[in-house]
Amino acid sequence: MTSREDETLAQAAVAALTGQLALAPKPGLPDPRDLAARVTRRDHRGLRWSAKALAPGLAAMAAAARRTGEPTPRLRAELGAIGRCAEHAVGLAGGGHRGALWTLGLLVSAAALDPRARGAEVTRTAKRIAAHPDRGAPRRPSRGSTVSARYGAAGARGEARAGFPHVRRALTALTAARSAGASEAEARLDALLTVMSTLQDTELLHSAGPAGLRHVQAGARAVLEAGGTAKRAGRTALTALDADLHARGWSPRGSAGLLAGALFVDTLPLTPRKPG
């Protein structure tokens, strides 16, 4: 049974996911401009609906973590089982967000395990959960794990077991951009580009290969080196990168999921810390 605290964490995670969906322009990724295009508007609406469908599963993960109280193999197995059920629910709601579910599920569970945790503390707790194998997982390798093995990329599992370094980099980028006077949307876009500039995105490796991945990373760095999205030169570079990736059909979905994870962690504390 879920508590009010579990529901609050789940809703914050969904808000983080829909918050990254609302950003534009996002290079190679769906954004609100797609609603005006008859060919792609269903994709963006489907992503919004499926994001909301994650809430019950995320709340159940938070409840499991709160009930277990420790990042044990038992908790990891329970989170895996809940996650597979949530994937099915998301599929019925239109699909998408599989990578984000993995990221947000671990981070929500970590926040439930340690309500006092903030920032990097949350990612460290998530790392302790992810260190355990999911013994109930299907034996058939996923596309992401196959691509990771082929190219030596960390992939989603490696990112989690390393304590989500790209979530931490995105948090640092958010703070830096806000301190420099960027708007909230610009700060979030800079955080996305920070992730894109170094992440070995298995979706990109699958669709574009290593050369394509390097092309996307270089394009993201070019925006940041031009001053970020708050500067005219950076905005011009962002627009060019967006047009380029959409034309090529390359989508850095892994970066979007990690940005959602950073936005969730950024919302903490959702409730005041208890004294003691």
Describe this entry's structure for a reader.
The protein is an all-alpha fold and 276 residues long. Helix content is 70%, strand content 0%. The chain has 13 helices and no strands. Helix 1 crosses helix 3, helix 1 crosses helix 13 and helix 5 packs across helix 6. The relative contact order is 0.14. The C terminus is likely disordered.
In one word, what is the shape? globular
Give the tally of β-strands. Answer: 0
The parts where pLDDT drops under 50 for at least 5 residues are 38-42, 272-276
Terminus-to-terminus distance:
27 Å
Strand content: under 5%
Helix amount, in percent? 55-70%
Q: What radius of gyration results from the CA coordinates?
A: 18 Å
The largest sheet, given as strand count, sense and whether it forms a barrel, is:
none
Query: Helix/strand-derived class?
Result: mainly alpha
Number of helices: 13
Any chance you could write out the topology, listing elements then pairs?
Layout: H1 4-21, H2 41-53, H3 55-68, H4 73-92, H5 98-113, H6 120-130, H7 143-151, H8 155-161, H9 165-179, H10 184-196, H11 202-225, H12 232-248, H13 253-267
Helix pairs in contact: 1-2, 1-3, 1-5, 1-13, 2-4, 3-4, 3-5, 4-5, 5-6, 5-13, 7-11, 9-10, 9-13, 10-11, 10-13, 11-12
